Amino acid sequence: MEHAAPQGIYSTQAAVRSYECGADGLMKPETVLHWFQEIAEAHASSLGFGYDFVMSRGLAWVEVRLDAAINRLPRWKETVELRTWTAQETPLLARRNLEIRDALGNSLVTASCLWAVIDVRRRRPVPLNRHIDSFPDTPCEKTVAPVSMDTSGLQPETREWTAERRDTDFNRHINNAAYLVWALEALPESWQEEHELTGMHLHFKKETHAGESMKSLLFLQESATCHHLMQGDELRAEAVLEWKTATSSANI
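Above: the chain's sequence. Below: its structure in token form.
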């Protein structure tokens, strides 16, 4: 079920499927990003400027930044509500806020992100009002503040891999959720067993394509990790993840 809720908020309900969860029975963090991408596109399409509209004009929506706060991740089989609303922030950027709520209306995940429209051929951003007549007048203030991490004096741990075709999306570049997976894969297993993710802050700098040789520089602190996702000496994306000490494992 999906509909445009009051005050310009677009909402839909969905149940968490088994393949969207990890061994703990909780939704994988990258699944949160996939869900957000889906409802963002559905809402944009309902407003007349979704995927089909921009692609017909040689354009594409690309996410520039995402900041998310996690109270808890949804569980397998849990039915939750996804909510989103959007507004133009600058001539080149649109802000989109998103939220996942449980059956009682409690906020599980809150996110605020920035999107741009690019010319597919030139790979450059274009002014939003050149192709989009108007955005909703829904208030869309930043709901999650960006977080940075001072890495001076910290020695990074390095991991290398090759970007794979399976992570390529409609825009013919590596999907943004893959950067989060890469960041999480760089963490020691013991770290992930002893900590719970409470915040995700991703800044996407430049596109990555399948076949490129990648490396991550991981900086660890007590309650945060910083991940520089590199191609050679070029920073493609930066992730700052916030953590708390794990309390107990979820039951499937």
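DSSP finds four helices and twelve strands in the chain.
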